[in-house]
Amino acid sequence: MKNGTTQQVPAPTDLRTRLGEGTEVNGEVKFTEVLKVESKVSGKLISDAGSLIISESGQVHADIEAGFVEIFGTVEGKITAKYRVEIRPGGRVYGDIFTPILNIEHGAIFDGKCHMIDESQKAGKANQVSI
Fold first, then answer.
1. At 70, is the secondary structure helix, strand, or coil?
2. Is 21 among the domain residues?
3. pLDDT tens digits, 14-50
4. Most exposed residue of 57, 62, 77, 124, measured as fewest CB within 10 angstroms of its CB?
């Protein structure tokens, strides 16, 4: 981070995995690169820096940790994105979001709290001492 601006990191674009309609997953899903969810997922979705795309038919009842998250469907749970979260028209998020960049487009629904703190701000906050 330089001069108070967030560093722009390109999102992975190479679709590697797709959970298609008619699939139901319960548990923890770990992925790299790009995961597209067109089904029902419950539990946890985890990636260090990958992209998660929730399609219009996607229904996620899980905590999400990823680099980038793009939502066209429904998410219920906490979202932690290292770089960016985008809620597209028709997308619905019910839960808290932790990300340095949040984009909510017209026609999207967001019901929760947004925490826009990057890693350097977290470190500074952790070093503060209350008297």
1. strand
2. yes
3. 656 778 888 899 999 999 889 999 999 999 999 999 9
4. 124
Domain around 35: 15-126
Total domains present in the chain: 1
Query: Distance (Å, rounded) from C-alpha 26 to C-alpha 23?
Result: 10
pLDDT tens, residue by residue, 105-131: 999 999 999 999 765 555 555 444 444
Q: In angstroms, what CA-CA distances link 13 with 59, 73, 111, 114?
A: 22, 19, 28, 25
For 50-93, the pLDDT digits (tens) are 999 999 999 999 999 999 999 999 999 999 999 999 999 999 99
Question: What b/e readout covers 29-55, taking b as 16+ CB neighbours within 10 angstroms?
Answer: bebeebbbbbbbbeeebbbeebbbbbb
